[in-house]
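thread: overnight batch results

M.L. [08:02]
morning all. the overnight job finished for the chain we discussed friday. pasting input first so we're all looking at the same thing
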Amino acid sequence: QVQLVESGGGLVQAGGSLRLSCVGSGSILRMNAMGWYRQGPGNQRERELVAVITGGGSPNYADSVKGRFTISRDNAKNTVVLQMNSLNPEDTAVYYCNAEFYGMDLRRREMWGPGTQVTVSS
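M.L. [08:03]
and the structure it wrote out:
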């Protein structure tokens, strides 16, 4: 059984910072790309990519967060971290961790975490 567990969400004032962490556990042979997505308030909002980092450590960011957010990973701990600075109310959303990995059966899979709420007050 493989699971992703997120932590670090919460309430912060505009201009503040938060640090999100996601840890993968279970029968994981190797983690490939890991990333963060978010879904803003309202049922019509789609889940959007925030940042992703490859197994080799190359990051990519949504234009809306470039220069403010930094994604990093620790392969030995199957962990991905999203450092969020200069937060604004538009960043308010549920943030989801996503990971592609190979299980012990050598099958490639994708998994989502349950999500963590980030709320930025003006």
